[in-house]
């Protein structure tokens, strides 16, 4: 087990905020794991992402108390630019991700590699590959400003994947997408996890989070109020008292429990839930 991030008693307030937006957060994030960050609006999810990318405090200023280590080194002493190749960041709002200096989607995705001084003959195949991966090949010659929200989200994702960072931070990457688009993005996120990336994913679609995250951080009022392996968090009755959306299979699980039906396993997908129920019915039938 290798630790990627270590936060010790981190608190933070923006220069203009009167109360701390992050409060006394202590967590360790392991390399190669997918962390789901959940919580209601205003709970501090985006600010936590900013911190992990170094935007807080380097860009937003304000004061950080506590310690944040990236691979053992203090992030407070690092340069923002040095973090760019290491940490890919997908903004919550895809409209601020576009560079504004490139005229086509292809150039937009190539931009980050260009900035690293990589040669054109290496850039072209990389960009072609990622265009197919993210299913936006048909948009390659479009102007980034002419895209829909969902298309921009895919371009933003392609722009970070092409850089091949060790860490990917994605702040609500599917908010502008329909169910099929969401499914596509989750397929890509799963692939990124399989190739060993460390992923921090803020997401409101709980069914997907339950299915793909290794570990959950639950935020409320700037604090991490609950933390643990995905199944443990969502099967914990305490989670229900936090008033945060519940994954649909967890909903059924708790509903069954209330009716006196205890499943032997906590299901992570609808298929797993169905399989459990079929199995139970079969056992009952044989009496
Ligand atoms: N740039 C900023 N300056 C001052 N306050 C901010 C800024 N960004 C967010 N906040 C405040 O910090 C709190 C947490 O916001 P945010 O991290 O965006 O939460 P979430 O992503 O969970 O919705 C909110 O009260 C919000 O108003
Ligand atoms: Mg947010």
Automatic annotation (TrEMBL):
It is found in: Cell membrane. PROSITE patterns: ABC_TRANSPORTER_1, ABC_TRANSPORTER_2. Belongs to the ABC transporter superfamily. Signal peptide: none annotated. It comes from Radiobacillus deserti. One of its GO terms (molecular function) is ATPase-coupled transmembrane transporter activity. CDD domains: ABC_cobalt_CbiO_domain1. It is a peripheral membrane protein. Keywords: ATP-binding, Cell membrane, Membrane, Nucleotide-binding, Translocase, Transport. Gene3D superfamilies: P-loop containing nucleotide triphosphate hydrolases (3.40.50.300). Its main location: membrane. Residues 5-246 form the ABC transporter domain. Pfam families: ABC_tran. SMART domains: AAA. This is ABC transporter ATP-binding protein. The keyword Metal-binding does not apply. InterPro entries: AAA+_ATPase, ABC_transporter-like_ATP-bd, ABC_transporter-like_CS, ABC_transpr_CbiO/EcfA_su, ECF_ABC_transporter_ATP-bd, P-loop_NTPase. GO terms for cellular component: ATP-binding cassette (ABC) transporter complex.
């Amino acid at each position: 087990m290798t630790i990627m991030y270590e936060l010790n008693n981190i608190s933070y307030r923006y220069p203009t905020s009167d109360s701390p937006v992050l409060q006394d957060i202590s967590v360790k994030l392991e390399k190669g794991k997918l962390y789901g960050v959940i919580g209601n609006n205003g709970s501090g999810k985006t600010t936590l992402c900013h911190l992990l990318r170094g935007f807080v405090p380097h860009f937003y200023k304000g004061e950080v108390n506590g310690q944040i280590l990236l691979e053992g080194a203090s992030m407070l002493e690092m340069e923002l630019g040095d973090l760019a190749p290491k940490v890919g960041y997908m903004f919550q709002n895809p409209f601020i991700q576009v560079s504004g200096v490139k005229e086509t989607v292809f150039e937009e995705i190539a931009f980050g590699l260009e900035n690293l001084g990589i040669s054109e003959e290496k850039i072209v195949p990389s960009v072609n590959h990622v265009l197919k991966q993210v299913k936006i090949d048909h948009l390659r010659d479009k102007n980034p400003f002419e895209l829909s929200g969902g298309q921009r989200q895919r371009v933003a994702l392609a722009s970070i994947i092409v850089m091949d960072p060790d860490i990917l931070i994605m702040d609500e990457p599917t908010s502008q997408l329909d169910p099929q688009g969401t499914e596509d993005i989750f397929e890509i996120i799963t692939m990124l996890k399989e190739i060993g990336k460390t992923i921090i994913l803020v997401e409101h679609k709980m069914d997907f989070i339950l299915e793909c995250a290794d570990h959950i951080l639950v935020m409320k009022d700037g604090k991490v109020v609950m933390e643990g392996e995905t199944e443990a968090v969502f099967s914990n009755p305490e989670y229900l008292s936090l008033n945060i959306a519940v994954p649909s299979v967890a909903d059924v699980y708790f509903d069954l429990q209330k009716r006196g039906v205890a499943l032997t396993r906590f299901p992570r997908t609808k298929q797993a839930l169905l399989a459990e129920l079929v199995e139970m019915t079969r056992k009952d039938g044989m009496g």
